[in-house]
Design goal:
With about 325 residues, this protein is α/β, with parallel strands linked by helices. The chain is built from 8 helices and 17 strands.
Length: about 325
């Protein structure tokens, strides 16, 4: 079949490469526009564009999905199928009507759970032990289409969002080609979702990184894991702002107020939490500097006695 692939970030690369190695023809890639990155703010090609250019696949990067010229160019390609993986934009009905067999999506959750923009982040933040990938048909309603195939995988207790996304990207690539093969032969049988069981994975917002230290230790730990690579959990200590990259839940009990520094020597940085427990901070990043392990941080930073980790701004600010 003739396939147009819609995808932008690293998550979309394994599925794209799987189709390029299949018996089907990828006639174009549609990616979001390149964005400036780094200190020099230079435009950087999206990960999928890099692959497409290396393989000689034409690339479209429209600023508007309803652009008549873009829609006409897609129509001229006469695609049989569209495949979407973390493209990052809602596709209009006019586009959905172009491929002969419609569009399918690699969705990083066990649908109908976590429909929406941030399924992996929300699964990690909520402390889920299990997640997966669903290959589904795209319909007008967000992530509500019937599902062709599904696969599950565990989420480790210390796994971060980027780590889980890499696992799911590879898993989705394994599922994708068999579904496309079935669509080509007319043997694909999608299963409708149970809308009554649907949950929504809201877009991650910057204010979510302002952790409240009166939360239980496991809850803070899950926020640290889940709010990566952005916005990260932020805190203020002795008037300076920090981002926390890695933590570990301990079995230590304390009566100190939440956020209180319990230990800050011998490479150990522990803070009290709201459930009377303690969180070990493993990797911390001072504002304007690189992330560093706790022992490295403590070697160059004196933490004042009775210091407390505090949120950088009021909740919902």
């Amino acid at each position: 079949m003739r396939i147009v692939y819609f995808g932008t970030p690293e998550f979309a690369v394994p599925g794209f490469e799987a189709l390029l190695e299949s018996s089907h023809e990828v006639v174009a890639l549609v990616s979001q526009p390149d964005r400036p990155k780094g200190r020099g703010h230079r435009l950087q090609a999206t990960p999928t564009r890099v692959v497409a250019e290396a393989r000689g696949v034409p690339v479209f990067q429209p600023s508007r999905m309803k652009d008549p010229g873009f829609l006409a160019a897609l129509t001229d390609l006469a695609p049989d199928l569209g495949v979407v993986a973390a493209y990052g934009r809602i596709l209009p009905d006019a586009l959905l009507a172009i491929p002969r067999l419609g569009l399918i999506n690699i969705h990083a959750s066990l649908l109908p759970k976590y429909r929406g923009a941030a399924p992996v982040h929300r699964a990690v933040i909520n402390g889920d032990a299990l997640t997966g990938v669903s290959i589904m048909r795209i319909v007008t309603e967000l992530d509500a289409g019937p599902v062709f195939r599904i696969a599950m995988t565990p989420i480790g207790p210390d796994a971060t969002t980027p780590e889980v996304e890499r696992t799911l990207a590879a898993l989705g690539a394994e599922l994708l080609t068999p579904v496309v093969d079935d669509l080509a032969t007319g043997s694909a049988v999608p299963v409708p979702q149970d809308d009554a069981l649907a949950t929504h994975a809201n877009k991650i917002e910057k204010h979510e990184g302002a952790v409240q230290w009166d939360l239980p230790a496991i809850r803070i730990h899950n926020l640290v894991r889940g709010l990566q690579p952005w916005p990260l959990v932020s805190a203020v200590l002795d008037g300076a702002r920090y981002q926390i990259h890695r933590t570990a839940v301990t079995d230590r009990a304390t009566l100190e107020p939440p956020g209180s520094v319990l230990e800050a020597d011998k490479g150990e940085l522990l803070a009290a939490t709201g459930d009377g427990g303690a969180l070990r901070i493993l990797v911390i990043q001072p504002e304007g500097k690189r992330p560093m392990a706790a022992h490295e941080f403590l070697a160059g930073h004196r933490v004042a006695p009775r210091s407390r980790f505090l949120p950088p701004h009021p909740p919902n600010a």
